[in-house]
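> @MW can you paste both from yesterday?
MW: sure, first one:
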Amino acid sequence: MFHLLQRCCFQVSTKMVYLQRLSQPGRSKAACSPVFLECVLAVVPKPKFRQAPELASVTKGRGFHSSCCNWKKRKASEPETRELPLLRYDMEKLKDSPKPALYLGIAGLIPFVSVPLLMAILKASYPELVFAQIAYGASILSFLGGIRWGYALPEGSPAKPDWINLANSVVPSILAWFALLFKDDLTQAGIMVIIGLGIALHYDLALLPTYPSWFKALRAILTIVAVGSLITSMCIMNIYPEKHLTRGAIEMEESK
């Protein structure tokens, strides 16, 4: 066992091996004398520890870190706070809407929804009804601009009565006026109203100081239904044949 450890762990010279043999029993007393042993030990180098080749290659190319270990626990990173809540977080507050605002808002969708529904039942497109729907959408745009003025003027309101708030609240009214100028082209008029509704919703949700959460959720739902109704009316105009509500009166006057 001793010889195995010598071969694996130590580099033993031939002189050291000779010294070990001399120390075995049965050797001469002269060879085992202290003077002779001291002379041999002075010549024999000290044994060196044999380092594994893998460990030697690692220690040559890399130094070991010997600093003290830091046992302190690191603090977990805190999640970033949202400066602007998304619309999906505001939808949960829809149930907190005041009853008058909720009922009046839903009732305000009747002029939008009734026009495409009536034309789909009659399987005909009536330009007069479509123009009435567009005119109603233009009046709603002006109403949305007035809400911003009423929200910014009271003292202590989050929205200040500055140029940004008051000037942006005028934009929906201007778009509504442009929409009414295209009465001969109902498609362009409807697109103008849709753009105005989208801009007004963007102002109220993201750009300007926002309204309460329940009002933002209600505004989003009402705007989506109104825009969908306008798009449906324009599609029906291109699908079903065009008819006029006053066609019978005009034909009677021509016959006379």
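MW: second:
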Amino acid sequence: MIKVFMFDALRMATDEEMERDDTVFVLGEDVGHYGGSYKVTKDLHNKYGDLRVLDTPIAENSFTGLAIGAAMTGLRPIVEGMNMSFLLLAFNQISNNAGMLRYTSGGNFTIPVVIRGPGGVGKQLGAEHSQRLESYFQAIPGLKIVACSTPYNAKGLLKAAIRDNNPVIFFEHVLLYNLQEDIPETDYVLPLDKAEIVRSGKDITILTYSRMRHHVVQASEQLIKEGYDPEVIDIISLKPIDIESIKVSIQKTHKVLIVEECMKTGGIGAELIAKIIENCFDDLDVPPVRLSSQDIPTPYNGILEKATIIHPEQIVSAVKSML
């Protein structure tokens, strides 16, 4: 085992896949000489050179289109969005081309492209840099969407995403890059479409992902001290959602709480509730509850910013009220 930061786990995954497969390359703003805004591509330029670690102009629509075209010709590009909200400028390429070309070409083209980078509410990054884009991309047919939450799953999931023949949107939370964990030194790959049982329990199912996993774990520690037994599931795969794992859990606990950083209106939690009602309605003893961020642009002011997102004490209170 080796103790690494999450940004380093992502760098290791990229390096290992570039070494294993010479069709893998990275492109984006400041990914080369600078080593990436969050050091996920640090030193890769020295090892692989200009043709495999490409510094691009500030032109997201153009370089995302370049990556999709490269994927169509047999390469495996990794696009880094310096901040995922910048990729709204490439929304046309991601939706009309990345998501649809395999289908509209009748299967003549595969699009093995990974679009990854930091997102979520950081610390006073302002509204435009604090967006939760997972719900924006969720409606696009043809995409897989993954949200990593630990150094261990970040590495295993990114390696799987790079090897997948479909376009994968890979979300990393800006506040988790400095999270440290022991991970195996040996090569490992994790499934892109499976949820993770973080903690088994029998009283209530808590569904979460990304940074909120850590808030839920913190809340669970308090709940356990008070005699409650929550089951915590990190859904990881935002598209497709692993409804089978969720169903098994709800059949045991009969209650479900969703904790997300996404907006309440049209968020991932809304989709989860729809799927739970469709698939697990008869197993529920109480209506599902979701704790989501406020439906407002994220304030720059630190106190107001904190008030827009969910914190462990709110999770504890919600569980108690449901039980």
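> thanks! The first strand starts at residue 2 and ends at 5.
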